[in-house]
Structure prediction request, 267 residues.
Amino acid sequence: MDVCRRANFPARRSDSAHPTTRRPPSAAVVTLRGTPTGGNSARCAACSATGTEYATGSHGMFTGIVEELGEIVGTEQLVDAARLTIRGPLVTSDAGHGDSIAVNGVCLTVVEVVNGDCFTVDVMAETLNRSGIGKLDTGAKVNLERAAALNSRLGGHLVQGHVDGTGTVLSRKPSENWDVVRISLPDSIARYVVEKGSITVDGVSLTVSGLGVSEAAEPGARDWFEVSLIPTTLALTTLGHAAVGTTVNLEVDVIAKYVERLQQRGA
Prediction:
């Protein structure tokens, strides 16, 4: 059975034909855990096992348009982090050490390219605890997107890859042309979410189609939102098979945060 073997590659390579995807190796499941370290989001400092940035200062910007459905083929528990090996022939085709790739909406930095179609990333404890990455096992499918270039089309919206919180799939209603999925909305970010606005769910840029409140919520609170998933999203992302109870990463529109901050400073 083929596995992702380590190989030496230059930091950057020109575009080339994508390697044929092989079956992932069988591996024992490693539970990814970390120690809470505080902070408001799972930020891109997860790019380094030490919690510091690479000398390149790599911070990607994304669009929320998933390029490829990848697969976790290996996990390794480190002292204060976890190392993931992910198969993704498309996003790895021009990747090198220090490049940013969004994995289920979490900005991570490539540590090493393995066998031409896999890459490794180190995920620190804060990110493991503040995102759904820590719950993923070997064999799990993940949404992958390379950092946008200045000439990229902005098909979704500006996505930083800094997870603001997690939600839980509460229900999904399939119809002939789309699925309506309801997801819990943490109170800490509810004020940034508006109907017809943008939100990132596991790295997918989506439009909020509805907001609501459950019977158990506090008066005036909004504790769920809905998105309508078209066939393309259902077929090409992990959201197509996200069952009720699944944890998903959420990132709100950063513009809303800037507006709030400016209002506070001007008050």
In short: Confidence is low (pLDDT under 50) at residues 7-58.
